[in-house]
Amino acid sequence: MSMRIGLGFDSHAFKTGVPLVIGGVKIEHPEGLAGHSDGDLLLHAITDALLGAVSAGDIGTFFPPTDPKWKDADSTLFLDTALEEVALAGYKIVNVDCVLIMHRPKIVPLAGDIRERLADLLHLDIKCVSVKGKTPEGLPQDGTAVCHVVALLESIELPNEHKQLAIAADIPDESEIDGVVSSLVSDAHDTSALGRKLPTFDTDDLT
Ligand code: MG
After folding, report:
1. Which of 12, 34, 132, 167 has the most CB atoms in a 10 Å sphere around its CB?
2. What CATH number has the domain bearing residue 129?
3. DSSP label at 68?
4. Which string of b and e fits 58-90 if b means at least 16 CB within 10 Å?
5. Cα of 37 to ligand 1 centre, how many Å?
6. Residues at Cβ < 5 Å from ligand 1 ion
7. Below-70 pLDDT ranges, the chain
8. How many Å lie between the centroid of ligand 1 and the Cα of residue 41?
9. pTM, full prediction
10. Number of domains, the chain
């Protein structure tokens, strides 16, 4: 079994006249968060943490803010793409830990609803989803909401029946089986068919 870790960050300015959505939960508040999409900084930070954990780029790689297609988009769409990338890489989420930093609204009274919604979106037990709130003491960020997320992933183990088939086929090593499965999944994953952009960085430059 192998493990991966990803770090996500996002920030959005508060703005009157738009709804406030955090972690897929609509919250009654005089101001929402400005953004090209629905401004859900928590889902954006989780999306980046998941994509980062499998080295699949970041949210802007798949959903550039310059593309009018994503104007006012529901951020669960971004998260679903990240979940797909995690699965295609052969991993599943172990847990996520999230920190929201803002003066208002207070996060503690909302954390239960947000955790429940995130557990549903991430297909996780609620015990594996942590949401914490901090006030930005000493930081000049009155009109801004900030979010940090860490996500831990572990590799998906092959079911026993697949292992038995592999033994019958005389494939000697489990890592070899994983390699074959990863290769098949990778070949089947045609990002162009989904209208996606490949990561903007050149993987050969990663030294
Ligand atoms: Mg964002």
Report:
1. 12
2. 3.30.1330.50
3. G
4. bbebbbeeeeeebeebebbebbebbbebbebbb
5. 8
6. 10, 44
7. 163, 166, 170-207
8. 5
9. 0.79
10. 2
